Amino acid sequence: MASSAGAPPAPGPARRPTGRDVAQLAGVSQATVSLVFSGTEAGHRVSAATRERVLTAARGLGYRPQAAGRQLRLGRSGLALLAVPNLQGPFFGRVLSGVHEEAARHGLDVVVSSGWSAATLAEAATTSRFDGLLICSPDDSQLGTLPPGTPAVFLDADPASAGGAPTVELDLPGGMAAAVAHLTALGHRRLGHLRSTHSAHTFRVRQAAFEAATHGLEVVELGVTLNHGESAARAAATELLSRPDRPHAVVCDDDVVASGLYQAAADLGLRIPADVSVVGIDNVSVAALLTPPLTTVDLPGEDLGRAGVAALAARLDGREVAPVAPLATSLIVRSSTGPA
Fold first, then answer.
1. Residue 115 to residue 121: CA distance in whole angstroms
2. How far apart (Å, rounded) are the C-alpha atoms in residues 106 and 103?
3. Average pLDDT along the chain
């Protein structure tokens, strides 16, 4: 059927933005854009401000460099592996968010692995599938010796077990100290602790920090197997709160454990915070949705992911990786804590 006279032509496919478009928007040369996206800007004296201007322009235009050509030129796959202990752990969603954001800035794509072993990581490191590895919160069984020269960065991990690879840590001692100080300021002198029995550096640090912060206080502790999730936390919390001398304030090693304590308190007819104050660790999204909202130590998972990718990108580009100071944590005070 003939088209109506004067009808506008059907729109063609949207043109893909080019490096020329990025250069024009950022007010730089195409050569500068190429240097930024090839990862070689440091050696050509491209300033951090100019690099950020180029990346901002690229994000605004939706520009991504031609991956195939870049990878062929640099001898890379363009992929990084993020290994987390448990994909269902809500904290690791925060880490992944930061990883994806920073990876896009460096022209990397990310594959996520869960339940990996030391052998799995060693195999990944010896293939050409991945340019580098990001190893987050590993437990002891997942640690092993990586092949020499493996570009790897460890997140929330023991520097002594990283084999000299860069590490990015969280200020867990500072966060735990803030949690205990908050409870003692409310008058609590007998604290409960639902601690993870998971064999991992991050939980050993939490335990040591709790012991240091509660020196001189009366403490009641019970272990929780995190692999069994809320059901294990609920059972341990029920045991803790059923004691005739139960503590009136409890610190939980993460927010999932804290949610199990909420369930146990409800089962026993206890009110939060009138009968028991509760503090968690992580500040995942569910913390603000609990009733009452949970006081918790915020662990900046997004910053952890971004810092890890930045360090990995530096390694891949042959740049020196400067030591990263432990990332600051903070106590988010909500309604789950009250006076003793």
1. 11
2. 5
3. 87
What order do you get walking across the sheet with 152-155 strand by strand?
Answer: 109-114, 79-84, 132-136, 152-155, 167-168
Read off the pTM: 0.77
The CA distance from 284 to 255, in Å, is: 7
Cα–Cα dist 259/160, whole Å: 33
Nearest CA to 65 out of 32, 97, 37, 100 is that of 37
10 Å Cβ neighbour count for 302?
A: 18
> In the block, which residue shows the tokens 């002198």?
189
Tell me the per-residue pLDDT of 83-112, one tens digit each, with 9 for 90 and over. Answer: 998 888 889 999 999 999 999 888 889 999
pLDDT reading at 13 higher than 60 = no
Beta bridge partners of 327: 170
The full DSSP string for 254-322 is SHHHHHHHHHHHHHTT--TTTT-EEEEEE--GGGGTSSSPPEEEEP-HHHHHHHHHHHHHHHHTT----
Residue 179 pLDDT > 60, yes or no?
Answer: yes
- Are 39 and 32 in contact by the 8 Å Cβ rule? The answer is no
Domains and CATH numbers, the chain: 19-66 (1.10.260.40), 77-170+301-327 (3.40.50.2300), 172-299 (3.40.50.2300)
How many CB atoms lie under 10 A from the CB of residue 323? 9
Residues 6+ apart with CB under 8 A from 258: 194, 233, 252, 278, 279, 280, 287, 290, 294, 296, 336
Residue 169 phi, psi dihedral angles, 5° rounding: -110, 165
- Looking up tokens 């809320």 gives 230
β-sheet bridge partners, residue 112:
82
Q: Locate 54 and state its tokens.
A: 């180029």
**One-letter amino acid identity for 105?**
R
Residues in the chain: 340
Neighbours of 37 (CB within 10 A): 23
SS3 content of the chain, % helix, strand, coil (to 5): 45, 15, 40
